[in-house]
């Protein structure tokens, strides 16, 4: 029995370990600070105590499972750092990557014109998206008001408690019942018929009011409305990630003119032999990978790409939330929630339509910018990999344990939930007020003085106010039924 002793520093790697032992009869002393030498000595001279299970990793099924788990968990821990990429299927990613690839190649004529084409595609996409959002704003800020449509808020939300519960008075000042609930189109038509009869027979108002009931305007399902807003926000979450990754890319990659293109010669054989084995062409040996970017290009991409993208995301979020929250019918809400996401994915449609094969070939070859390395784990032998995994599991800090628990709830889910709550709160604060019974009712309906809506009024209504008439065209009746 050699009685080996192994002493290590509190931090890995294993190269910091010191192995020593003394022969019980000869008294000879050996020591080895090299991880490989230490493990080899211990494996040979004290295998039962130290590496019995590891030495059987390839032969014993249980040992193979342990080694596989150790390798898998080690790589997954490293991959938590992730990698940075650009959107290769979007015009936004194209205008970030193409100029850097062209710069790395010395601005050849063909690549330069591809870059110019990319910026033209970006301009077309920006015009289309802004125009669509502007039209959505005009519908809700101008034409809905001229049609007399007030904000839905909580009208009809408490139908189960009506006619005697809270929130059971509609915009016409009468109490809700299920048979008297209509969407705005049907309700406005019924009001038109009643008002026409009043105008034709002014001496029979009482008879008309007793026999012609226009009903009340309100939503069919508050739960469907909230659920569809959530679905709409979920469709926007990928855009939040893309914007975040874009800013993160600008902050992380080196601020210097590094080449994005290189020729990667095979290291394990002759080039022609490797090409024949894999059926490669010379193009497969050309590697395109995200690398450093000069400061002026970073600034240019932030101003021209990321800031407009974030602005469009916020604009469609507010316009879409307002559209869904002011939709009363269940089927209309569901259809609108799925259709609104089309505005934000328009950039991919424009890119697929206006880009050419050369652009797609370049972007398909673009490799991510990794934020992790597995070289250390590749250098570990099986015994060291097992020890490294056990040490990480046993001595994990509280912060690492908290990060592991966060995997239960993805970060995207937190972003989605936060955005969802903020969007709904914004709608109620901007368009609704509290009624005496505590429910939310629409603010007064003020008619715009003009059907013309400027771009500033459409996208920045809190700064560029819309001129309205002095007297409201609708307000909640003051004398509510008891």
Number of strands: 12
Mind telling me the C-alpha Rg?
Answer: 34 Å
Give the DSSP E fraction (strand runs of 2 or more residues): 5-15%
Low-confidence segments: 1-60
> Roughly how many Å apart are the termini?
96 Å
Total number of helices: 19
Question: Main sheet, how many strands, which sense, barrel?
Answer: 3 strands, antiparallel
Mass-distribution shape:
elongated
Average pLDDT, all residues: 83
Q: Helix- and strand-based class?
A: mainly alpha
Q: Give, in spatial order, the strands making up the sheet with the most strands.
A: 1-2-3
Could you please describe the fold and organization of this structure?
56% of the residues lie in helices and 7% in strands. By secondary structure, the protein is mainly alpha-helical. Helix 11 (295-325) crosses helix 18. The chain contains 19 helices and twelve strands.
